Amino acid sequence: MTKGSLLAAIGSVAILGLMGWSVSGTKAKSGDPAPHTQTSDASNETAQSAPSAADKPQAKPATAQAPDQPEATDQPSATAAPDPHIALDQPERRGPVTHLPLPRYVSLKGRTGNARRGPSLSHRIDWVFTHPGMPLKVTAEYGHWRRVEDRDGQGGWIHYTLISGVRHVVITQKMVDLHARADAKSEVVARAQMGAIARLDRCTRDWCEVDGEGAEGWLPKTEMWGVDPTELRD
């Protein structure tokens, strides 16, 4: 099974699709090899756990916006106006190892990656990711390990050397149009099938530009997974 790729052209519109797969991985079986024989885990468990380029975030954080003001009514307000000196934003959560934001998006670096029940080789494998570039969400950190999940919530603990900071997204709708600009009225330059994986480029408030092996275009954020709704990228 391979990652999403450029399959064919219909007229002048390319189709970004996938080659015979529709899930992000496989559930580990009881007959899988013992943990120490797995080739999809890190080969060097004594590596330093300092933040690496694989964990480096690529996204530009969105500018925080104040909440909308309530509409005026004839009834007196039951609550006092907010104090402008009080910060309304919640503090950003960061990982205890890398000090990078949690959660954050990364991608699978190699062809496969074992997701374990806990952060060590002694824990059993619950899930095996099988598609290079698959977007994953990091939700926790412990030493050399990162707890990740895919768009369906499947996952577990994976060694940090198996993930990359190069961002990808997965298409979540059956067939979507890639536009020449971040505008639904702009020219359709390609189409993408559900499950196709594409590299993430720029993002505006509602749209992102993606690249699927030569097929480039803009998609609404609502048609992909692997990017935050408020994320901006230059």
In short:
Keywords: Aminoacyl-tRNA synthetase, Ligase. The chain is 0% helix and 38% strand.
* CATH domain class name of one domain: Mainly Beta
The assigned structural class equals mainly beta
Number of strands: 17
Rg for CA atoms? 21 Å
Uncertain runs with pLDDT below 50, 5 residues or more? 1-13, 18-23, 31-39, 43-87
Helix content: under 10%
Q: Would you tell me which CATH topology of one domain applies?
A: SH3 type barrels
Compute the separation of the termini in Å.
32 Å
Question: Strand fraction band?
Answer: 35-45%
CATH architecture of one domain: Roll
Shape: globular
The largest sheet has its strands arranged as: 9-8-7-4-10
Average pLDDT confidence is 75
Keywords: Aminoacyl-tRNA synthetase, Ligase
GO molecular function, one term: aminoacyl-tRNA ligase activity
Pfam families: SH3_4
Protein name: Aspartyl-tRNA synthetase
Report on this model:
The strands form 4 sheets. This protein has a 5-stranded antiparallel β-sheet with strand order 9-8-7-4-10, with no helix packed on it. A 5-stranded antiparallel β-sheet has the order 16-15-14-11-17, with no helix packed on it. A 4-stranded mixed β-sheet has the order 1-2-13-12, with no helix packed on it. The chain has no helices and 17 strands. It has a domain at 2-21 and 169-225: SH3 type barrels, CATH 2.30.30. The chain is mainly β and 234 residues long. The two termini are 32 Å apart. Keywords: Aminoacyl-tRNA synthetase, Ligase. Pfam families: SH3_4. Residues 36-51 have a biased composition (Polar residues).
